[in-house]
């Protein structure tokens, strides 16, 4: 008979076998800080226009080559619970602003690194967090006073230069060298669909990536572009009236099985002719309603294609229900569930629907030249899929920046100028605090300095000298002094003259999310992990089907 081995007394006695329990500063807090610092250091080198790319291979062996922190975080399956908190903060930044995810991760990591020094000096996590919170409140109070531009009306032509600078600065961090061309594409796409009354929707700017040629052959199309070919013989319709169906364009089959007894050849001919006549009547009725293009979510039958060609109707099949919805929105059509003739309200309109070919890729283009276009598509060309994916991410950042400006037109000086000014001002404010919170506030300022250091390090410049020069300028009241990444000339520039600006919303939310994440991690004093559930692992090699993804 086996002897019963008693468990060690204490907290572990209450847990099942295989559970892990860590507590105290050494085991829990410092471990969490160490994990978050390592995670922050990973994306640090990807910050700024001279940031390095990362090769990330995800769980289904797809390769990503990018310096976009949002993509790196999304594809790295991070398991550490403390690092996950920073991931959640960066995801919230992505949803709220659409840009500045790297800022959140780096700043949260810098705050935790500074907190570690204070904890080793003998301060408690609560005192450190109080210092951080006071510094954050002061920072958010200072931010509106440091704006360098404010865009009142995004449709005003006089303010187009400032809007261009804001979008260009955002794209520059992803595509340094091609930023002007990509900015022109983004602004052309965004301004063509700018709504009169409602807010700007990011989803209304689509990206269609076509392999071949180079980036400078990319164009903007008012309307939608699909990587499909047409069904039937008709390849172009001008002033097209469009009917959209979610069902197949074919002879309708009955829901129940039935048996037909045919006694003669004549009955057999009449039976098949009856089906053909029903289908012809349906398509003739659709043609009589003025329809020149049919778009369907299901397949086109051979007999249906014959009648579509007969009545000079162009057929297009879209596999994705999301694409069908977007097309309906773009051409102002209503998707019909059955093959019935549409009325005037259900018909969509496009100036031209035609089949085109770029490289060896067939395209169907729905073009709307009028001002009432609700969708625009940027057709991106490039040599490799990875390169085009990176361009798409840069475009996404530019479109999100445009949306941010349409919500709040305040812009801050970029190139590290705003971080340095905040670090200088918060450092002065920390000296006025009476209690132990001043140490936390001081370290908050040191964490803000880190961004200029990272920009300098990634550019290959001595960061400490640059930092000293910038501090000197900001102490003299030159709040727009930033770091110059160009090799020619001085290492400092007046960012308002060069036109490097940051979105106010990006910094406003980024500072809050990063500080909240850092304080949440610091206030953890125990980590209790239950034993993992048994059972076989899910088979790899295939991603789960996601109907919600679009």
In a few lines, what is going on in this structure?
By secondary structure, the chain is of the alpha+beta class. Helix content is 45%, strand content 17%.
Oligomer state equals single chain
**Biggest sheet character:** 10 strands, mixed
Helix fraction bin = 40-55%
Unreliable runs, pLDDT <50, ≥5 residues?
541-550
Tally of helical segments = 16
Shape field: elongated
Please state roughly what percent of the residues sit in beta strands, choosing from under 5%, 5-15%, 15-25%, 25-35%, 35-45% or over 45%: 15-25%
Mean pLDDT: 79
Keywords: ATP-binding, Chaperone, Cytoplasm, Nucleotide-binding
Function: Molecular chaperone; assists the folding of proteins upon ATP hydrolysis. Known to play a role, in vitro, in the folding of actin and tubulin. Required for correct subcellular localization of pgl-1.
Subcellular location: Cytoplasm
Family: Belongs to the TCP-1 chaperonin family.
Description:
The protein has helices spanning 24-44, 69-75, 81-96, 101-121, 125-142, 160-172, 179-192, 265-288, 302-310, 321-331, 385-407, 417-430, 437-459, 463-475, 495-498, 504-522, and strands at 20-23, 54-57, 63-66, 149-150, 205-211, 219-226, 230-231, 236-245, 293-296, 314-317, 335-336, 348-358, 361-367, 376-382, 410-413, 481-483, 492-494, 501-503, 526-529. Helix 5 crosses helix 13 (437-459) and helix 13 (437-459) crosses helix 14 (463-475). The radius of gyration is 30 Å and the shape is elongated. By secondary structure, it is α+β, with helices and mostly antiparallel strands. The chain has 16 helices and 19 strands. The strands form 5 sheets. Strands 5, 6, 7, 8, 9, 10, 11, 12, 13 and 14 form a 10-stranded mixed β-sheet that branches.
């Amino acid at each position: 008979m086996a002897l019963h081995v008693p468990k060690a007394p204490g907290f572990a006695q209450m847990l099942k076998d295989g559970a892990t329990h860590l507590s105290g500063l050494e085991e829990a807090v410092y471990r969490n800080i160490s994990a978050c610092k390592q995670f922050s250091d990973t994306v640090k080198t990807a910050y700024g226009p001279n940031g390095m790319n990362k090769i990330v291979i995800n769980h289904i062996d797809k390769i990503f080559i990018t310096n976009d922190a949002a993509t790196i975080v999304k594809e790295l399956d991070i398991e550490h619970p403390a690092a996950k908190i920073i991931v959640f903060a960066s995801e919230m930044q992505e949803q709220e602003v659409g840009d500045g995810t790297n800022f959140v991760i780096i700043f949260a990591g810098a705050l935790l690194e500074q907190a570690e020094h204070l904890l080793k000096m003998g301060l408690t996590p609560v005192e450190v967090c109080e210092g951080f919170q006071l510094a954050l409140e002061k920072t958010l109070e200072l931010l509106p006073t440091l704006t360098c531009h404010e865009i009142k009306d995004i449709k005003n032509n006089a303010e187009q230069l400032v809007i261009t600078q804001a979008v260009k600065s955002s794209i520059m961090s992803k595509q340094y060298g091609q930023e002007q061309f990509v900015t022109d594409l983004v602004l052309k796409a965004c301004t063509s669909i700018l709504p009169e009354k409602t807010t700007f929707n990011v989803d209304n700017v689509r990206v269609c990536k076509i392999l071949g040629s180079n980036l400078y052959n990319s164009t903007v199309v008012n309307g939608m572009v699909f990587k499909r070919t047409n069904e039937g013989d008709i390849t172009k319709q001008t002033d097209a009236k469009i009917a959209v169906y979610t069902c197949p364009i074919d002879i309708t089959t009955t829901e129940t099985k039935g048996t037909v007894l045919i006694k003669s050849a004549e009955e057999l001919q009449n039976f098949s002719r009856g089906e053909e006549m029903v289908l012809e009547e349906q398509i003739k009725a659709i043609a009589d309603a003025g329809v020149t293009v049919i778009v369907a979510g299901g397949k086109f039958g051979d007999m249906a294609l014959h009648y579509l060609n007969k009545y000079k109707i162009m057929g297009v099949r879209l596999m994705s229900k999301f694409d069908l919805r977007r097309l309906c929105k773009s051409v102002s059509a209503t998707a019909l569930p059955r093959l019935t003739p549409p009325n005037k309200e259900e018909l969509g309109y496009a100036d031209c629907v035609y089949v085109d070919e770029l490289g060896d890729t067939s395209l169907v283009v729905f073009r709307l030249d009028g001002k009432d276009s609700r969708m625009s598509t940027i057709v991106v060309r490039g040599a490799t899929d990875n390169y085009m994916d990176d361009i798409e991410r840069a475009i996404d950042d530019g479109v999100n920046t445009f949306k941010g400006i349409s919500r709040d037109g305040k812009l801050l000086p970029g190139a590290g100028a705003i971080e340095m000014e905040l670090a200088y001002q918060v450092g002065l404010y920390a000296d006025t605090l009476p209690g132990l919170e001043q140490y936390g506030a001081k370290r908050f300022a040191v964490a803000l300095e880190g961004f200029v250091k990272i920009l300098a390090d990634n550019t290959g410049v001595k960061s400490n000298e640059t930092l000293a020069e910038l501090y000197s300028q900001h102490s003299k009241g030159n709040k727009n002094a930033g770091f110059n990444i160009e090799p020619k000339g001085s290492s400092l520039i007046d960012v308002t003259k060069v036109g490097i600006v940051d979105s106010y919303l990006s910094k406003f939310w980024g500072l809050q999310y990063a500080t909240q994440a850092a304080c949440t991690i610091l206030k953890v004093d125990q980590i209790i992990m239950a034993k993992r559930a048994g059972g076989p692992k899910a088979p790899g090699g295939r991603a789960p089907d996601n109907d919600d993804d679009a």
